[in-house]
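Record type: monomer structure entry
Structure origin: computed from sequence
Chain ID: A
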Amino acid sequence: MKIKAENLLQSLLTNKYSIFWISGDEPLLVQESADLVRKHYRDTGFEEREIYNADSDFDFDRFTNSVNNLSLFSAKKIFELRLDKTTGKSGSSEKLMLGQEEKSAIDSFIEAGNPDFSLIITSLKLDKSLLSSKWIKEYDHLIGLVQVWPIDRDGLIKWLSKKLNASKISADREVLQLLSERVEGNLLAANQEVEKLKLLANLESNSRVNLSTKTIMQVVADNSRFDAYDLVDAALIGDSIRCQKIISSLKDEGAHPLLILSALTKELRGLIKMIDKKESGQRVNSILQTNRIFFHRKQAVTNALQRLSSREVWRMLDKARIIDKAIKGAALRNPWDEINFLTLELSGYRVFQ
């Protein structure tokens, strides 16, 4: 059964599953969910723990033999199966490659049915074909499947607030906003900065400290990290200021403008199809569902559908064609400037050139 990460604690309290499979592209969030499951099992008497890092050279017989090793005096045990084999790049991220060996290992744990054993599986994001497969559906009632998604800007502010509060550090909305801007797109850096702030606070056991914007400016490095898809979503949502920041960051990092243009063009072509359906009378929610727009992108795409016409998008696609020529040296224009203008227009600003 699929479980939202924010509902994981509640699901643990029901004691319904002996297997939790946590998957996602953000290692820190996967680790946090796994820590929560691990703590739950320890609190309920699971004293021993065995970890198996299942990379391409892993011998799954080790795991299977241990799972089937019964003893009259064995303690409750947590097994951790960390699946590391990937398919390589798919779109903007890697995905899990699940072969017969991995499936057989999980089958063996389930078939053993030992109430004194629990299993925590961690992996990269699961492919749609695996999620819809007969094999995974067969175990829907046995496996708690936690799909961890990257945190958006609002989610990052909430996450930072929770982290700081747990460390006895108070921060108002302005401070949290500034901190999130400095670490956006880089959750590991965000966690490191929180740890740094904890050390700087040098707190005694019962004290709290108020974090100021001045402190953030002085001690927190600018660790924001973006890709072309962050730029696309910022433009769709209408945040032109953030678009400028992302373009500047990508340019400084040496990103090739053709990759940025490719992401923008792909999104514009997808928008044309959706806008045509909207203009023919189809409801936006139905359009989003038909085109499989994931929940973390729904707000951005909905914003674009509500304010753009097909004529405007076709005009932007024509500009994208000119930018492509400029990148390839067939037009006397600065590609980065033109990309800037294009994203401004996609954000909702009419650019006159």
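Annotation 1: Confidence is low (pLDDT under 50) at residues 88-92.
Annotation 2: The chain has 17 helices and ten strands.
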